[in-house]
Amino acid sequence: MTSTSLTTGRSWRPSLSRRHVPVLATLTLLLVMYGIGVSQYRAFSNVQVIFNVFIDNGFVLVVAVGMTFVILTGGIDLSVGAVVAMTAMVSAALLRDGMPAALVLVIALLIGPILGFLMGCAIHFFDIQPFIVTLAGMFFARGMCTFISGASISITDGFWTGMSQERIGNPAGNFVSISVLIAFAVVLVAAYVLAYTRFGRNVYAVGGNAQSALLMGLPVGRTRIAVYTISGLCSAIGGILLSFYTLSGAPLIAVGMELDVIAAVVIGGTVLTGGSGYVFGTVLGVLVLGVIQTLITFDGSLNSWWTKIVIGGLLFAFILLQRLIGIRFK
Amino acid sequence: MTGDRPVLTMTGISKTFPGVRALHDVDFRLFPGEVHALMGENGAGKSTLIKVLTGVYGTDAGTVTLAGEQVSFSGPMQAAAAGVSTVYQEVNLCTNLSVAENISIGREPRRLGAVRWGEMRRRARALLARLDLDLDVAAPLGTYSLAVQQMVAIARAIDVRARVLILDEPTSSLDAGEVAQLFRIMRQLRDEGIAILFVTHFLDQVYGIADRITVLRNGTLVGEYRTEELPQFSLVEKMIGQELDVLERLDEQQKRATVAPDGRAPLVDATELGRRGAVAPFSLRIHAGEVVGLAGLLGSGRTEVARLLFGADRADHGQVLVDGGRAPLRTPIQAIDRGIGFCSENRRAEGIVPELSVRENMILAMQAARGWLRPIPRRRQDELVQKYVQALSIRPANPELPVRNLSGGNQQKVLLARWLITEPRLLILDEPTRGIDIGAKAEIQKLVVQLSDGGMAVLFISAELEEVLRLSHRVAVMRDREMVAQLTNDDTLDADRVMRTIASGTPREEVNR
Fold it and tell me: B178 to chain A: which residues are within 8 Å by CB?
């Protein structure tokens, strides 16, 4: 047995693309769906259709970015939808009571991360399942919404209406909202953090094998708490964007949104058990969901529940795909 | 090759756990530029010594000196920072990250807080080149074999300027070629002046690479030897110990090599049965009423043989005939259906359900054999349980007591009763007498003799040669995951000859085919 036999030979060269297969699959799916839309409906080819998808889903995208951090560590955050609603509710109530917009923004942006931090601490220090901790967080935040007000509160503040109506466009008349730019900024920052900071790499390490990460001397606890805090912050930003979009706070808005967001992240190629995935994939996942909605709207005859049915089928297909890749990976 | 002054000395180390004296006054030293094998059977204290060294455990007495300074590490991290790195049997890396990241995560090169991927990969390539490894450092670690992962773990360990490298059974899941690759790296590191502490159960590997051997037995130091001055036979003798078993003095049982196959078809006939990475293909026939002993050191593949015959692991080679008919033994249920029972060596993890009562534990296997839809009537249960509680003199004789309240010996008897109730034709006993008191041991041995006289076939696995020789008609000898001999237990066979077989063997070219 020669000593070099292990490291020479083509078979030892792993295919780099395997990690990217889920993201590429999502991209293909997105292009196919867009192609279907363009071939079926003439108006679909208008660039504004895509922009509208972003405008309608900007807040979802931001929340999904936070969820990506959590899922990358192998966790889950069920509280995001309720935190989005609570943030919008708190903003609306404080604005109604005459608080200055800047102060309202600060307070609203603090609530989410604080709740996330507390949930992260509970998960780490007491070693409780993230599922149950964030479920408790979800009930708490949703309860707080109704506690603030049983009915929805509309927002008339100048800054809010300004953000809502501001259009950034090109001479051809296509435009996006400020929310979309904020969402893009969040995506870029998140992508940078995950790829180029120690914290980001620790997120992947913890998701890959928390026990090993601990033995390699990585700050596993700090990383875990941080991802739930980040998810809380993203939910808070998402809540603000939602209140820009609807100009109100409603106690029962964004119910079940956490599940849409999880679906978007998974369809975007992030593995539920953690350790593998990209923010870019999450962007694609959110777009897939948005394009399905748009297609069904264009059709006009289909019930909007078809969205859910299609998402269900896709989610199932993507989890199977991940599993198959995972098996081959081993 | 070896330096004059040890880089590491451990003096008078003692460590006691509640009820167990794990280490007693053990000395150990390690010179720069040597590979030093730490040898001993299970419970000899090897892992405790390593854990004391790396700060996982504190010591009750004794000092550790690293490069002339007395040290006491708070844990493996601090030990690694001081230059004492450990690579464990299971690779503790993240398979989802790239090779380069696994080597440097936690101390990545950065500029203004941003990880410098190019620099990181360049460093990883340089480090791996030093180990003569040519890997794609950007590929996820999981795409490489366990052997390569093990070497990446070593690369990570030496990247922190290790002076002492501890390799704790790094070879247990590697095949022959991979072991050769690992040894090449070990020799190279040794020549660079790193002191390597190597733990393994494979004798060939010790003689293939170690410069010096320290032997522990029952928590005490047997001695430190230069490899070339310690023949394999003496090493085995020192590891097992030559103390005459108390039991042997109790009753001088005559040799049992009486049962002849006399043309009857064997009950179980395994032909070239094997499983890659677990045990090399072996052939073994067991007749009704025959006790076959399985001797060998820890990790020699004894349990693996048992698990293949019981269907707990699936064989990827060879076949088994039961009663002359071809029998797929893919799951334990198939084995149980054909009358095979298996008492695991690991009675806590794989046998006893501690919260259930003695009665419930005993009827588990019978109930499983009947299928869960046909519960055994309570009266029948009580009869059976009562019978075996008396027959095996299980104490306390209260069938409704949770099993965890019983002593180890009595737990073992409950486990035995579980299988006896199913009236198996072949009973596999894996270390049935380990860790139990001498009285219970004698009773279990007596029982084995009775069972085989009654026509039951028994495969008896034990680390204690005296016990194997006392009970068996034939002894199969395992060495390095291969069945190297099957010896008839006649007047010529004694512990000495078995040990000699374990030590020399006649291994084939490749161990894990």
Answer: 6
CB contact at 8 A, B394 and B443: no
Q: Which residue of A has its CA nearest to B112?
A: A197
ipTM of the complex: 0.84
> Which residues of chain B lie closer than 8 angstroms to A276, CB-CB?
96
What DSSP string describes B343-384?
Answer: E-S-IIIII--TTSBHHHHHHHHHHHHH-TTSPPPHHHHHHH
The token pair that represents B25 in the structure block: 């006054």
CATH code, B8-240? 3.40.50.300
Q: Hey, what domains does chain A have and what are their CATH numbers?
A: 17-329 (1.10.3470)
Could you tell me the mean pLDDT of each successive run of 10 residues in chain B, 513 residues long? 77 83 90 92 80 87 90 85 84 89 89 91 91 88 84 85 87 75 89 91 85 90 92 81 47 49 76 87 90 85 89 87 83 86 76 85 82 84 88 82 80 86 89 72 83 89 83 89 86 80 58 34
- Dist CA B15 CA B58 (whole Å): 8
Distance from C-alpha of B87 to C-alpha of B150, rounded to nearest angstrom: 8
Please state the separation of Cα B473 from the chain's center in Å. 25
C-alpha span between A52 and B165 (Å, rounded): 60
Closest to B357 (Cα-Cα) out of B304, B404, B301, B308: B404
Rounded CA-CA distance A149/A93 in Å is 8
Q: Is the dihedral of CA B454, B460, B462, B467 positive or negative?
A: positive
Q: What would the 3-class secondary structure string for A181-236 be?
A: HHHHHHHHHHHHHHHHCHHHHHHHHHHHCHHHHHHCCCCHHHHHHHHHHHHHHHHH
Q: Do A205 and B95 touch (CB under 8 A)?
A: no
- For chain B, residues classed under CATH 3.40.50.300 are 8-240, 243-339+425-432+451-513
Please enumerate residues of A whose Cβ is less than 8 A from a Cβ of B: 1, 3-8, 12-14, 16, 18-19, 195-198, 201-202, 204-205, 207-209, 211-213, 215-218, 275-276, 329-330
**CATH 3.40.1400.10 for domain B243-339+425-432+451-513:** no
What is the C-alpha separation between A2 and B177, in angstroms, rounded? 8
Tell me if A16 and B134 make a contact (CB, 8 A cut-off): no
Q: How far A330 CA lies from chain B's nearest CA (Å)? A: 7
